[in-house]
Amino acid sequence: MTVSTEASAGAPPDTPSRPAAGHAPALPAAVPTPGRPVRGPRSRGGLLLLEAAVAFGAALVLPVLARSFKLDPLNRIAQVSGLAGLQLRFALLGLLLVAAVVLAMQRRRGRHFDLATRLASAGIAGLASGFVAGGVVIALLGTPWPMFGLNGDSGRIVEWAHAVANGRPSGSPVYPPLPLYTLGYYAEWFHGGNTAYAFKDLQILGTAAFGPLVYLAWRMLLSPVRALAFGVVPAFALIDSYKPYSQTVLVLLVPVLVAMVVTLHRSGTRNWRSVLLKGAGFGAVLGVLFLAYSGWFLWSAAGVFFAALLYFPWRTGPAKGAAFMGAALGAFLVVAGRYLTVMLIEGQTTKDYNFRFDNFTDPAYYLMWRTDMPGEVGDWPPPGEFGGVGLFALVTFLCLGAAIWLGLRKPLVITIAAMFISAWVMRMYIASHMYETQTVQLYTRTNNQLLYCGLILCALVAHLVSQRLAGRSASASASASAPASAVTAGGSRGAGFPGREGAVIGTLCALLLLLGTVSSSMSDRFMPAQDGTYRILPWVSHTIRMQDGTCPKFAPEGLCSKDGDQGWLSYIR
To answer: What is the pTM of this model?
Structure first.
């Protein structure tokens, strides 16, 4: 189900022609290179499987290494040492991947450069989320409990998963069933039915899988380095180790829906077998995501519907477009139809009356979500430079307009912009009725979708500008009639940009450092502390009596209790 928006052969009218050979963009697209064999579909599928294996394998390295760290996770100096230890290993492993790309450039005239780039990009994506998962391992060293133990959402998930694994209904018919069944059966297989201890494993594994899954989803649309830069990097602003599945669904749903609209747009010229199979494939994938977390579908529905109407193949093949959508809908209903029915019936009577910190702040501010445990907060939102609006917000809105301007005919751009606007409208609609209904309906969760789509649009501006600059460079060089012999391996190419090899290596180095820094920050936010933020979650895990009656190894002053430290209740707003 690979859908490339960067292919040159057979590209739709809205896809710009690629630059001339020898003048590729600064970030390379997946196009045939002179002197290298053009790979067929089977070969491309095999390479994607290899990328997946490398990404998931890399994601497990740092969590496994972190298990051997000898430190007290409740000691701040130990936490800093642990983060530095992870950062050192991340950097060394990442530099090995970059070194492999450099070596591939130098050997055999760069014959394996593209393969090395693919694997390095996949490996860095896996290492980045593995870094955050390693942070969870450090935070929970010495305790078998998951973050927050049996309190709050963690306790409810543990209880409901145990119920469904034993054939009983969960405590909430509208709660996404896939995480509950996954936890329940995983506990049966590996923890003798102990869903509490099993949830710790899945918090770590779910966090580790975040990077590879996001990378592979964006590989349906972008080349390896672009998928890493424009898909994976923005997603790391949302990575969540407490309940990894909710944010993972969001960062997967965006590229899947975009790829679906792109495929719909092209379906009018495809054969019937391809149309039906791809439609069913997208429907099945969306069904699985819906079972994992359904909220993002509500915020995105209007925008995706608009994009689908805009890019429906009205002229080239409306019958095939209808068949594609019919196959997608049929497969979605087969996978998630039962849960959708429950949501349509029970969702009408399920109300959210829990007013949280963000419900008392300006509804137009979405750039940072302080969670349900914001800790000590001063003025919020932070005062901005322009009419109370900060520079980050200004850049985001400017990028929204610039992306639409530069990519008006591209489904990739318009679908994401439509999802951004759809989430914004739904947010304001629900918030405007909050006083009348005295319900929240989780509208503040749109923060994450608005932020993610906004960051992607900013990245796409760089993507589109780089393509246009590369095209101009190619035209200028062609007009100057630079001889092909002037091109040297990895060196300067006439009057245009330097060779693509240097661009790839430089970009990978920059992304390695950026992701390492972001991963360290996102790991640090879950280091145990009594400060009223999410750091309280792993702190409580160290204060709960284990099932054998003893305290966790690093329990504060050796004390623990059945429910653990309940001081967090004073921080709830």
So the answer is: 0.89
